[in-house]
Amino acid sequence: MAELLHRLGTFAARRAWTVLIAWIVILAAAVGGFLVGFKGLSSSFDIPGTASGEVVAELERELPDFAGATGTVVVHATAGAITDEQREQLAELIEGAESLPDVSGVNDPFATEAERADQAQQLEDGRAQLEAGQEQLDAGRAQLEAGAAALEEGQAQLDAARAQAEAAGFPTAQLDAQQAQLDAQRTVIDEQRAQLDEGQAELDEQRTRLERGEELLSLADGIRLVSEDGATALVTVSYTETRLELPQESKDATMAHFSSQPIDGLEISFSTDIAQGVPEILGIGEAIGVALAAVVLVVVLGSLLAAALPIVTALLGVAIGAMAVLSFSGVVQMASVTPILGVMLGLAVGIDYSLFIVYRHRKQLLRGMGVVESIGLANGTAGNAVVFAGVTVIVALLALGITGIPFLGLMGVAGAVSVAVAVLIATSATPALLGLAGRRILSRRALAKAEAASDGADALRSVRPMSHARAVLSAVLAVAVLATIAIPALSMRLGLPDGASEPADSTAYRAYALTEEAFGEGQNGPLLVTATMPGDLDDVEVERRQLAVASELAASDDVVAVAPVGVSDDERLAVFQVVPAEGPNSESTEALVRELRERRAIEGDMALGVAGQAASNIDISEGLADALPTYLAVVVGLSFLIMVMVFRSLLVPLIATGGFVLSLFATFGAVTAVFQWGWLGGLFGVSEPGPILSFLPVILTGILFGLAMDYQLFLTTGMREAYVHGADARLAVARGFRAGRSVVIAAALIMIAVFAGFIASESIIIKAMGFGLALGVLLDAFVVRMLLVPAIMHLVGRGAWWLPRWLDRIIPNVDVEGASLERRHPAASTGSTDAVAADATAER
To answer: What is the per-residue pLDDT for 835?
Structure first.
């Protein structure tokens, strides 16, 4: 690989314009692919096979009207209650929204509340009618019973007369006629009594249904669309497409429509279901981050021209990678954060990888090497390390696919593409630009300093190992700092962002706050609960079962209101809206969802299913949490094997992996403290603390592990190089650290600057990713790689390089730094040891 990269670097230096034009053509092809294939991004996340997903699929089959996405338009009067005139104007807006793209219906909150009031009045009127009917029935029954009593009295008289007549031997024909009349009257009374009984039964049934209706209305009392003071109203927009399939254009059309005709005195805001769009890929914060990276490059490389090269190649790589990834958005559903992850990594590693090659080339030029041969050697040595480092990051990113979560695997692929492009550009376009620049990348000051510097032998002799006491103190201090920062991670909760997580000046946050203030927290995240039924039921039985389920749901802790909202045509599925006491990301709502799912079937045959934002959050978070251990094991395991081959040691990979775990959990702790606990939230733009983004731990694990191994590589290879050339183990640690620290510090600072630039994003998702990556690099590079690892390797001494003989014989020899290449090109290098010494000289 080193020899191939040497040839590539030499070719690029000599045929610079050929290489650069080739990359420009590739960029044009990527732009063309983007223009043809880009079909938009999704702001939603989902995991197939979840419990909430199964509920949604069942709704699509049985009740498709309830399976589509919904969003809320919050209308608020700035002074007093909403007036009749404002209601009329709002009604016109609502009527016009019916024809918007993918909109299946828009409810008028005032009309809905009027219908609710009519229902309540109907129930009240029905109660009065029932009472009047009962009174009439009771009066009729009283009259009937009085007639029956008179009939029985007449019967007694007739019986007495018949007895006297028979005793006297008189004829009874007249008495028989009277008896016939009495029997006829008795028959009439029996018929009337039966009619009264039927009337009473019907009245009882109506009373039962009325009481059920009253109880259902009472259970739904907490569900309102117009606040009690009349100042806030909720307009619900229903869509034909599901949440994942709803195009961004349809959401934008909804917001544009309701914002197109402002109503005096009314403030209109939109819930996250509508307003959460695709965040901008690059903004002011990212530009500032790149500018800070440029400052670091100028300090390290000593000239504006040299500093400009890594920036130019990184921007070229980002453009190609982002355009290439977005070209496939019409083929696969792509989350809005997918290309942003690629941009983050493309900028960071693109600058760093180019820096490593430019830095090596610059050092060789200062030692008097020719431009072309120096470019070839730098590409074969530092470029070889860049390829290996890039492969490590790519493996970690592609391994996201083993989680079984499509959007996460796609994010990994997008990031891997950006890193792969960065590696290719660093090892081809960077040598081409260096060839065009020639020796102009060296400033006069750098040349003068090189001429005045002492020789390499003096530089080597000036390096001394650290003391044992310093090593122990450094190790203890590093572990203590990381462990302390990691403490908040013990209480980390996962979830997805809601309106409370949006910027305080955003429409989504305003909608969330207004809804919470006027209707309660739970109205921001109602649950959709389904109940299976036997089917083929009459209306009375459907009502009875609805009440049974609603009453059971309402009896649960932290439930404010329950309302039946639909039954399938075959009476096999009933749907209920449940308003929890707190918001969708609260612990109580999470506990409620779990409790409902674990509950036994009501009456033995009505099983419950739960959907809604809170349920989806739980499913996605659980899926990601379950995938994290497997992912971590695979990535760490593969990287451990790779490091064993590179460093030919067992302890060095163990130290590197252990240090990464410490820095990772410290990163988790800091993220939890800021985004969940709210510490320093104002500084980082966290308006409302909440659960940690559910897929953030997995993303941080993959990216930070790859970057951590990069820094481990660039520091430890110098240590091993010094050790195999005969230096004492502890002295080799000092020499390798001295040789590599400058470029590693610069690379880490560049990474931190680029990632920190994304903290300024308005999207809480991007903000959290930028913060976690920036802090993770800071902790891993400066605390673990430059403090903890050298201290432990010093304390272990020669044991750090121990490898069983049988293992030494079977593992391949991986020449990451290209030492064999330097030996094959003696004219281009005075030796590896001298290279380390020259680096040490330049740093003194």
So the answer is: 42
